[in-house]
Each structure stands twice: as structure tokens, then as C-alpha cells.
Design a protein that fits this description.
Strand content: 15-25%
CATH class: Alpha Beta
CATH architecture: Alpha-Beta Complex
CATH superfamily: Creatinase/methionine aminopeptidase superfamily
Largest sheet: 5 strands, antiparallel
Number of domains: 1
Number of helices: 4
Radius of gyration: 17 Å
Number of strands: 14
Helix content: 25-40%
Structural class: alpha+beta
Length: 253
């Protein structure tokens, strides 16, 4: 784990801006009938045009059955994390989560959004809004002197307060020269616990929820994580720097 200087945080801004702008562009373009492979191809096109580098295409952690091979995660309906793009055209009412991380000039930014194409179910909108509110609450606590546990507790409090169960197997993480680093930022926890937040720490904060369960299962592709009971999922994420002036959201849209 490393702490970044103000000069380094300035150098990280282009990566954050590019990730934010790419997700905003895809949010506008994705619609009923869009193929998940088209989303990946469009993200790849934007990466090449910007001279950026994908963090996903060669990514092969211990839980992955093979390198990811694509440049964006596309999770639909009961899929919530690490959705591997495949030949599927979005249908009216589908809940889509896009998770995107790239490196620009050697610095990484990571962010995720969820939205519904076509006519939304009220339950889907509530699920998405809860992840967004949890993310906002977590960012408010990301100040010098607080702890990782304060961030986790803020997320868990919002999620549980709205009747959802929280999975802590996958959560936020350090961001810098690589996509995943220390510390781990769980989506539930106890206030005042864990390491203290210091100026220059950069973390991805990423609340994600499933509608009626906290249990997950893997697809045969070895990547896509779905709810164990078929209920829908949503995911919101920002890359945030801890500064003397408060939290700096590098991926703000």
C-alpha cells in the first residue's frame, strides 16, 4: 500500500476523467437491442483512441479460470460482478452494470454504474439507488483520521437499512499503478476498526447488492458472478483519493 503525493494525484486525474467519460458515453449509447459484445467493442475503440491501456484484457487473478479477454465487465440482471461480455442483446427492462478500469500514463482508475434499459421495474430502481446512496455515504466518511471500518459501516448501514443483505466477499480496494491493491474495503463492517485513512490513500469504493440474497455463484465462464437465487443485482463504484481537503472523487461523472 502506498500514499500518493499531491503531484501524483494530479497525474491520476486523466485516468479518472477517461473512465468517467467512457461510462457516461456508454450509458447514453446502450439501449434495447445493444449486444454486450458491441459494448465491449465500443469501450475498446475508446481506449485505443485515448491511448489508454485496459486493466482487464490480460487480468488473471486466482479466482479467474483464464485471462478475462475483454475490456469491460457487462453484468445483466442476476449477474452483478465480473460479467464477461458475450453474445446477448439487451431486452426491455434489463438491469445492466458496467464496470470499467484502465491505465492512463501508468495510473489506474476504476468505476462502475448500473442502469435499466427500457421500462424499469421499481424494485430495480430501488436497488440501484441504494447502491448509489451507499456509495455517497461511504465517500462522505473517506476523510483523514477516519478508518476503513467507517467506510464499510457507512455502506452496510445504508444497505441493511433498506432491507438488503450484504456480501463482503468482494468489495473495494486500493488503486494506483495497478487495479487491485491494499487495503480491502469491505461493504460492511464496524466503525473505528481497520487502518486509519491517511492523506494520499487512493481507494475504489464499490457497494454492490442483490435483491433478495447475499449469496453468489459463478457462471461456467469462470468470471461472471450471479445471485444464488436468481434475483437481480446492482453495482456502483468510484475511485476516491483521501486528501487534506476531503475526499476527491477521481471518477466523478
Amino acid at each position: 500500500m502506498e500514499l500518493r503525493t499531491p503531484a501524483e494525484l494530479k497525474e491520476m486525474r486523466p485516468a479518472g476523467w477517461f473512465v468517467a467519460q467512457t461510462l457516461a458515453t456508454l450509458r447514453q449509447e446502450v439501449a434495447i437491442g445493444t449486444n454486450l459484445l458491441e459494448i465491449d467493442a465500443r469501450a475498446h475503440e475508446l481506449i485505443r483512441a485515448a491511448g489508454a491501456e485496459s486493466c482487464y484484457i490480460d487480468y488473471h487473478p486466482s479466482f479467474g479460470s483464464s485471462p478475462f479477454g475483454k475490456v469491460i465487465c457487462t453484468s445483466v440482471n442476476d449477474a452483478v460482478l465480473h460479467g464477461l461480455p458475450h453474445d446477448y442483446r439487451l431486452r426491455d427492462g434489463d438491469l445492466v452494470s458496467l464496470d470499467f478500469a484502465v491505465s492512463v500514463n501508468g495510473w489506474v482508475a476504476d468505476s462502475a454504474i448500473s442502469f435499466v434499459v427500457g421500462d424499469p421495474r421499481p424494485a430495480d430502481l430501488a436497488l440501484i439507488e441504494t447502491t448509489q446512496r451507499a456509495l455517497a455515504a461511504a465517500i462522505e466518511t473517506a476523510v483523514v483520521g477516519n478508518s476503513i471500518g467507517d467506510i464499510s459501516a457507512a455502506i452496510g448501514g445504508v444497505c441493511r437499512g433498506n432491507g438488503y443483505r450484504v456480501n463482503t466477499q468482494f468489495g473495494g480496494h486500493g488503486v494506483g499503478r495497478t487495479m487491485h491493491g491494499d487495503p480491502h474495503v469491505a461493504n460492511d463492517g464496524l466503525r473505528g476498526t481497520g487502518m486509519k485513512l491517511a492523506e494520499g490513500l487512493v481507494i475504489a469504493i464499490e457497494p454492490w447488492l442483490l435483491e433478495t440474497t447475499s449469496q453468489i455463484r459463478y457462471d461456467p465462464d469462470g468470471w461472471t458472478l450471479r445471485s444464488a437465487d436468481g434475483s437481480r443485482g446492482a453495482h456502483s463504484e468510484h475511485t476516491v483519493a483521501i486528501t487534506a481537503d476531503g475526499p476527491l472523487v477521481l471518477t466523478a461523472r
